[in-house]
Specification:
Blueprint: E1 3-7, H1 18-31, E2 38-44, H2 46-57, E3 65-69, H3 70-74, H4 79-82, E4 85-92, H5 93-102, H6 107-122, H7 131-148, E5 160-164, H8 166-175, H9 182-192, E6 196-200, H10 210-219, E7 224-228, H11 232-241, E8 245-248, H12 268-280, E9 285-289, H13 293-302, E10 306-310, H14 312-316, H15 320-339, E11 343-347, H16 355-359, E12 364-369, H17 371-380, H18 382-395
Helix pairs in contact: 1-6, 5-6, 6-7, 9-10, 9-18, 17-18
Bound molecules: pyridoxine-5'-phosphate.
């Protein structure tokens, strides 16, 4: 392999994607007419970076990127012995993460900038030589970055709001009668501006019933998203009623609500089979996953069209610091999923305080929100509760 990515940090902790960074590095070498050259990129923590920074530059503390051109070692060697190596780049992921936070950009993007910067150094660009050289290098970096990233720098549309009406049915089931009706509630949500209706037909039928899904299929004017497990009975219902899309979720009998994302790797066979059946019927499949690079890569592998990123840990965070860490993971994951060609939704636990920040992420198409809106509807009415949530989304723009 011409480009060797070496992770001396826990890749999972930072939600870093090997595939995405490989792809971007390959594109970079192509653009620089260096395809096939050997390049090692080593990702490390601040402590290791500080050691290299001191040993090779006599400077204390970590830095973001260091480059070691192979040309320095090959000087004086005849061309046949000089080899194909471009050199080594060291990147401190901790410093990159700090810089990403300050610049309000994603970690993958910041690391891409550092890879570009480091590679240009390997090719002899040097911003420390003169202000003119600095300008030449900066311009080249910007040019390369625009070509490498497929990400829109500014979003053009707000994410859609899809309302989950399960808890209207929860209230109905508490009495075992016909009111309140989630089908009627769905109509009110649509009139208030929701762009989609979501229901989870659980195997235990604790809230939404088969009749609800059937009627919703006939009455929903926007988009009906059926949340479901990969259970044979529910798969057959979905194939029969043909929702506009399905979202695969894990399901446990004893849980109060969906507790975590689906483990795509551990359930690969079942998920693949379900996606195959849905594809034949023309029903797009989303998979509800934790913001985790390996789950995103697995979702791509099994052929999902969408992923829905689990926002629960971000919403439940008890401190601002914790919330910030969880937010960064969602941001990273959304970017990774989008860049990998998946469409991206998000949801779970979002409320009137936590939604705006997620809605501002440029990669997310739709937010699936239930409990907070139905709770607020008890006090202010469903129409207003939906409109207030839409305001939270618009505020993100
Ligand atoms: N997304 C998924 C996959 C869910 O399972 C749920 C809960 O049913 C939601 C979104 C909505 O979560 P909440 O009701 O907390 O807004």
């Amino acid at each position: 392999m011409a480009i060797n990515l070496i992770f001396l940090i826990d890749r999972q902790r930072f939600c870093l994607s090997n595939i995405l960074l490989q792809d971007r590095s390959n594109r970079l070498l192509d653009l620089l007419d260096q395809a096939g050259r050997q390049l090692s990129i080593v990702f490390m923590d601040d402590q290791s970076m500080a050691e290299y920074n001191f040993t090779y530059r006599g400077k204390k503390g970590p830095t973001n990127v260091l480059s070691f051109p192979a040309a320095d070692l090959q000087a004086g060697l005849p061309p046949e012995l000089a080899g194909n190596e471009l050199g080594d780049i060291l990147i401190s992921v901790e410093t990159a993460l700090c810089e990403a936070g300050k610049n309000n950009t994603s970690l993958h993007r910041r690391i891409t900038e550092l890879i570009i910067h480091g590679t240009l150094h390997l090719l002899g660009y040097d911003h420390e030589q003169s202000s003119r050289q600095a300008m030449v290098m900066w311009e080249k970096e910007q040019q390369l970055l625009t070509k490498i990233l497929r990400i829109p720098s500014r979003r053009t549309t707000m994410p859609h709001l899809a309302i989950n009406v399960d808890h209207v049915a929860t209230i109905r089931q508490a009495r075992g009668i016909t009111e309140p009706d989630p089908v009627l509630a769905a109509g009110i949500c649509e009139l208030a501006g929701a762009k989609g209706i979501v229901v989870h037909l659980r195997e235990d039928r604790r809230h939404i019933q088969d009749r609800d899904v059937l009627l919703l299929r006939r009455t929903v004017k926007t988009k009906l998203n059926l949340e479901m497990a990969t259970a044979k009975e529910i798969i057959n219902i979905a194939l029969d009623i043909k929702p506009d899309m399905i979202t695969l979720v894990p399901e446990k009998r004893k849980e109060l609500t969906t507790e975590g994302g689906l483990d795509v790797i551990g359930n690969e066979k079942k998920i693949k089979n379900t996606i195959k059946k849905m594809s034949k019927a023309g029903i797009p499949v989303s998979i509800f996953i934790d913001p985790d690079a390996t789950q995103i890569e697995a979702a791509l592998e099994v052929g999902a069209t969408f992923v829905e990123l689990h926002t629960g840990r971000y919403c439940d965070a008890e401190t601002e610091k914790e919330r910030d860490i969880e937010f960064r993971l969602i941001e990273q994951s959304a970017e990774l999923a989008f860049e990998s060609g998946l469409r991206v939704n998000a949801g779970h636990g979002l409320d009137y305080r936590t939604t705006t920040r997620i809605a501002a992420l440029p990669f997310i198409e739709e937010l699936s929100i239930g409990h907070a809106v139905i709770t607020r509807a008890v006090y202010v009415g469903l129409d207003q509760a939906v409109r207030e949530m839409l305001d939270c989304i618009v505020m993100a723009g």
